[in-house]
Task: structure prediction
Amino acid sequence: MNRKKRTTTRDIAKACFVSQSAVSMILSGRKDIHFAPETIERVKRTAKEMGYEYKARAKRKKTGTNDTIMIMCPSLATQYYTTLIQFITQEAQEHGISTVYQEVNLCPNLTVAENLFIGREPKKLGMIDWHTMNKKSTALLKSLSIDARATDKLEECSIAKQQMIAIARAVDMKCQVLILDEPTSSLDDEEVEKLFVLMRKLKDQGVGIIFVTHFLEQVYEVCDRITVLRNGHLVGEYPVKELPRVELVAKMMGKNFDDLADIKGDHKKLEQYIPVVEAEQVGRKGSIRPFDFTVNKGEVVGLTGLGTL
Result:
């Protein structure tokens, strides 16, 4: 007699694309976990669908004291800055704050509609009302000019479209403040412009947007105000139109214009080429075509390209 295989946390981890330890912490009901609400909902839902039995601890008391905001900028070693903003608890969403992370935190195996309403599906007679969910999803996508169908699988959508679907989910949850964490990092120029159109539309609807990016040109294209932080202290807040780009870099680095001019300097050509590293036919089968390169003494060689998963 064949015994039915028991569902484990490892099975759930594979289905949700998270670590096994993350599944264990979420299903144990720990109060100190720091995962996005969408991840928690996805893990619990998958566990239920797979028949995994667990006993959740009592719900944590909503004190509002666990919301965490961490901002770090800028790095003195570069002209770019990195901002890390984390709103991890459910209280943030209840106060109208939603975050769309750099890595889209949705379920690729589910439809667009299921991702839009995951954890808050409309129900009828105790069952999910698929017709209503698809109808509401279609209306939401149309209102934001997102070219996607409610019944499409998320995995069939481009990264840019997945970003917009994640934003649509946040909008439908009545967010008043939308935090976008590096949303343009993996988009091409055309996709970036589509995202900016959506951002401007949300701004016109009264949504406040915190835009995290290391592309300064995008800051000047889509933002109204810039807040500069350095070494944990507020340097200042400036209207975009009143802060030239070179002055922004100076404030981020804590240097004046003369110092920046010295940093730029003149590019010096090597008088003689003395190889210190030489390589031929370097590559990897199926991913990197063989190539040759040489690094000379006193020379900086940069390698760039597009990676794929």
About this structure: The CA atoms of residues 27 and 56 lie 6 Å apart. The mean pLDDT is 76. The first strand starts at residue 97 and ends at 100. Strands lie at 97-100, 123-124, 127-128, 177-181, 208-212, 225-230, 233-239, 275-284, 288-296.
